[in-house]
Amino acid sequence: MGNDIKIEMPQNVIYILEQLNEAGYEAYAVGGCVRDSVLGRTPKDWDITTSAKPEEVKEIFRRTVDTGIKHGTVTVMLKSEGYEVTTFRIDGKYSDHRRPESVEFTSDLSEDLLRRDFTINAMAYNDKDGLIDLYDGIGDIKRRVIRCVGNPDERFDEDALRIMRAVRFAAELDFEIDEATRIAAENHAPELSAVSAERIETELTKLIMSDHPEKLLDAYRMGITKIILPEFDAMAETPQNTPYHLYDVAGHTVEVIRNVPKTKVLRYTALLHDSGKPECRTTDASGRDHFKGHGVASERIAEQVLRRLKMDNDTIRDVKKLVYWHDYGIKGDIRLTTFRKGMSQMGIEYFDRLVDIKRADIEGQSDYGRQESLDTLSKLIEMKEKIVADGDCLSIKDLAINGGDLKELGIKPGPEMGEILKTLLAEVLGHPSNNQKEILLKRAAQLMKGISEE
Question: How large is the average pLDDT for residues 161-180?
Fold first, then answer.
């Protein structure tokens, strides 16, 4: 069956398998941990499948948690580590394209493996029996193929999220999707609308955080993004007839995703930075396209997409900020004073990530004007470094005076004080050397007098 393959398992996993065996039950490491071990990757989790029923597993191990008892899963705790142990099972009817209404426990490992999504995830292993590979998972690993176990229509009808998982595994492993599996995925893609936003977000994030986010274009061709990310379809249908670009908006977007570091904020910024282009596109008399105002539109669309995906508020805030500013300073003739004001509005703490986005954006365009764009980016970096080295004031909290100082001048906390502080900041951004307590107090007194005379 595959006894020539030897998998190194953690000591805790070996212990759990041995305890189950000694109690008279079959037990195997199963699924992703076996797949990753065969591929030479380090498994994140080790899942165990067994002929023992949940209550029997609980009798064998001292500390367990009922994580999914209805579906046969008990988590065995060994010190602070948890290992999911699931009884061999046959899934009942799926009515919501998500999870079975019921499960039936079985003593037959082959029936348990048959219910799994893809052949590469349907392998089991223990040291005694070696690799159990009933559906040619090893063959598909060698062929670098994602293929459903059994009938792909049945697998996708059971759980529509498997459609996204197929593309995600293809992206993580740089595999292709088997033709029959692909056709079934295309046919069942509309059923993704029944899957929760949280599950969609998890798979989409893994896809764009992978080494091959360009597989998102496969998701478009298969009709997946039409359901989960229609904004990407609009991008794919928006050409960029301009010497600065080689690709349509989606093709360019994928290049930018590939070229930014693998952080959630940067990858989602790259995904959505040009999402406003479809609605902003105009074409002049010469046939050249323009996308005026697309940063503002993209920021709005980014928020809509991320809220729909139930993303956390910090990620939404950071992505929106970077999407809005991604085209900043593009003309190359920006002055230090203007740049300082821009950094005050954006927040200088975003600058390094903005550079990552801008550099990837340039790399995803044509050679036309590329060196000029890179020179502009270098100039922005130099100006940022000068601002930091000079200790320039960029925010109200950086001012040499504060609300307490203004109270001593007789200015009461409230809108009036806020306006004076904002005015002082605006003036200091233009003249950083004026950020001195004496100068600012004198100026604040003038502003207070002006307000009282109004």
Answer: 98
- Structure token pair of residue 451: 């307000």
Helix (H, G, I), strand (E, B) or coil at 276: coil
- CB proximity list for 444: less than 8 A, separation 6 or greater: 401, 405, 406, 409, 411, 420, 424
As a whole number of angstroms, the distance between CA 159 and CA 152 comes to 11
Summarize pLDDT for 110-152 with one digit per residue, the tens.
999 998 999 999 999 999 999 999 999 999 999 999 999 999 9
Residue 65, φ and ψ in degrees, nearest 5: -125, 135
Q: What is the pTM (predicted TM-score) of this model? A: 0.91
In 3D space, the residue among 28, 18, 122, 104 whose CA is nearest the CA of residue 61 turns out to be 18
| Stretch (H or E) spanning 283 | strand 282-283
d(CA 319, CA 216): 19
**DSSP designation for 134:** T
In a 13 Å sphere around the CA of 190, the CA atoms on its Cβ side amount to 1
Check residue 454 and give its pLDDT: 47
d(CA 98, CA 159): 4
What whole-number distance in Å separates Cα of residue 225 and Cα of residue 203? 12
Q: How confident is the model over 345-350, as a mean pLDDT? A: 95
* Phi, psi of 284, deg, nearest 5: -85, 180
Nearest CA to 118 out of 143, 93, 84, 82 is that of 143
Q: What is the pLDDT of residue 332?
A: 65
303-334 confidence digits (pLDDT tens):
999 999 999 999 999 999 999 999 998 766 78
The model's confidence at residue 430, banded by pLDDT at 50, 70 and 90, is: very high
User: DSSP state, 73?
Assistant: E
Which tokens is 297 given?
């539109």
Distance CA 142, CA 77 (A): 35
* DSSP codes of every residue in 176-239: EEPHHHHHHHHHHGGGGGGS-HHHHHHHHHHHHTSS-GGGHHHHHHTTSHHHH-HHHHHHHT--
Separation between Cα atoms, residue 430 and residue 338, nearest integer Å: 8
User: In this predicted structure, what is the pLDDT of residue 92?
Assistant: 59
Q: How far is CA 157 from CA 91, 186, 364, in A?
A: 13, 12, 38
In angstroms, how far is CA 284 from the centroid of its own chain? 36
For residue 252, give every residue at least 6 positions away whose Cβ sits within 8 Å of its Cβ, in sequence order, or none: 240, 245, 246, 274, 364, 365
